[in-house]
Specification:
Two copies of one chain form a homodimer. Chain A has 339 residues and is an alpha+beta fold. The first copy, chain A, has a single domain, classed as Malate/L-lactate/L-sulpholactate dehydrogenase, NADPH binding domain (Ribosomal Protein S8, Chain: A, domain 1), CATH 3.30.1370.60. Chain A is built from eleven helices and eleven strands. In chain A, strands 2-3-4-10-5-6-7 form a seven-stranded mixed beta sheet, sandwiched between helices. Chain A has a two-stranded antiparallel ribbon with strand order 1-11. A two-stranded antiparallel sheet of chain A has the order 8-9. In chain A, helix 1 packs across helix 2, helix 2 packs across helix 4 and helix 4 runs parallel beside helix 5. The longest helix of chain A is centred in the first third of the chain and has 19 residues.
Chain lengths: 339, 339
């Protein structure tokens, strides 16, 4: 796959301009651009620039609202409900995590539900913001059908990530951000785009046969982790982010890439609470926890036992120093969108 | 394995007497007995009577406190912290879920952390109590080392269950109660006690080799679901129930069956919130969700797509009508403990 190198600040200006051209205001364009660039820098390419054209297409077809009137309803000092008015997901999630942080700082715990939102990229990106304020955070969002419920022959659950963030007493946060499918849908999409194969055992084609062909997997069914357990976790996320919030659920979230018949109406749930609610020396305790686990005897070939988020943080640091490498095919998207 | 049949009410009286003989007051004996009988009725034998002798042994050796002075510290209207004073886990969990329900009814959301507790049986048993009050609930507890962190050659995480309960608009609650190990430790323990084999791929012996021998698996390492992801979920549970609460963590929770050198100091976390916080018609929405999923085309041989908790509820109903069947070896425990 041919790639081109771009300086981050130049790329950033270009994306901001594109979003503004498509009707987002300065602030919303900046929020959305930062989220996309972050995904590139942590190596989550399936949530990065490979999606830019899709967002713009959805704005053009009026299924993302570039000028949303976002309503924040206060249910208590701790609890808020956001109607995102079909905004681009990044903007809804940005307001939601900031509200959840505000509520938790005030009362110890914050809970924010969002409806009428869209795909917001990486849950971990929002979790980091809360963790930096010494909050523990749990984030749930649903997504278009990709995984079959246990016992069913048809996809219904999204890859429905479970995200958990916690302060570590160091600048490298603990961020678990795991989909309940064997592989992220974004990775299959990137493989399909680049004509690469996917691993065995992660997906079935539309006839129910195992496949390593990324394009066939996108038409078929992704497999959940751990059978009934993974299916149950996906169902939990659908309840928390969809049924509870007022978002779409039970397979009704539209695929953003090929269903322009209406807004996605994705739902999200953000829970935040102070890490030192019960133990003043939380920081000392978590440091000890990590130290003990890192000291365990290791499987041969393993240099260090890593906690979730550590690798991503390392990649972010390394990539931030370099120019961003993007596939030529995406560079072409940028040029067309900016023309 | 030879079994004997007993009427539930007779068995119940017998267990209450045993707990009282070991120093529990009437109320604590009743709470603990109900939890054990419930485990038998739902078919979770690894959390049922197979543990009774262990609890009594721990009381005798003064590592469970039969007369605890349990302190409930109110942090806010929503948040409470319980020091269980090394009570039997059932009693700590019973107070905790009742406090979490009370807090959520008052403010919309409740969060209760528990320290200095012990093994409390099935998380789902407590989740059910909250769900009956139209609350959604999330429960976390840590446990003695059983699962190796990803990359490590030694067990450290417990089987650390993730429990989620939600009202369904019917009398059969949605209760996901899943350990992050491939198999519940309790099931391995029951297999070891009855000289039965365990499935392949769920455990390694103490030398790191795959084993189907339940006794060797108990000495070895259980495998987490989904590699790094399951390991991350186990780590999350250790932070939520141990690091956060003041409980033991990082592998320091003692095995209740063979480590009498001190109390377990297990930690638990209970989160509850009103199911209709954001959508008044939550019940209608969840009913629709379940109906749509149940209508999906099914894999050949599957009669009905079940949601988590449905099978357990069915077993409970069926078993409640019958006498309880217990292995002779456990009947003998009862006779000795009651003599």
């Amino acid at each position: 796959m041919e790639k081109v190198k771009l300086k981050t600040n130049i790329l950033k200006k270009e994306i901001i301009n594109i979003f503004k051209k498509f009707g987002l205001n300065n602030n919303h364009a900046l929020i959305s651009t930062n989220a996309l660039i972050n995904a590139e820098l942590v190596g989550a390419y399936g949530h990065g620039l490979s999606r830019l054209k899709m967002y713009c297409d959805r704005i053009s077809k009026k299924v993302i609202n570039p000028k949303p009137k976002i309503k924040i309803k206060k249910i208590s000092q701790s609890i808020s409900h956001i109607d995102a008015n079909n905004s681009i997901g990044f903007v809804a999630a940005d307001i939601a995590i900031k509200t959840a942080i505000h509520n938790a700082k005030k009362t110890g715990i914050g809970m924010v539900a969002v409806k009428n939102s869209g795909h917001y990229g990486l849950s971990g990106y929002y979790a980091e913001q809360a963790v930096k304020k010494n909050l523990i955070t749990m984030i749930y969002t649903n997504a278009p059908p990709a995984v079959a419920p246990h016992g069913a022959l048809k996809s219904l659950f999204g890859t429905n990530p479970i995200c958990f963030g916690a302060p570590t007493g160091s600048k490298v946060p603990f961020i678990l951000d795991t989909s309940i499918s064997m592989i992220n849908r974004g990775k299959i999409r990137v493989a399909a785009r680049n004509n690469k194969k996917i691993p065995e055992g992660v997906a079935l084609d539309k006839f129910g046969n195992p496949t390593t062909d990324a394009k066939k997997a996108l038409e078929g069914v992704q497999l959940p982790i751990a059978g009934f357990r993974g299916s149950g976790l996906a169902w939990m996320v659908d309840i928390l982010s969809g049924v509870l919030t007022g978002g779409n659920h039970a397979g009704k979230v539209k695929d953003p890439f090929n269903d322009f018949s209406g807004p996605q109406n994705i739902g999200h749930l953000f829970i935040t609470f102070k890490a030192n609610l019960f133990q003043k020396n939380y920081n000392q305790r978590i440091k000890e926890n990590i130290k003990i686990i890192k000291r365990l005897p290791k499987i041969s070939g393993v240099k260090e036992i890593m906690y979730p988020g550590q690798n991503k943080f390392k990649r972010f640091k390394e990539n931030s120093k370099k120019e961003i490498n993007i596939p030529k095919i995406i560079k072409k998207d940028l040029e067309i969108l900016n023309s």
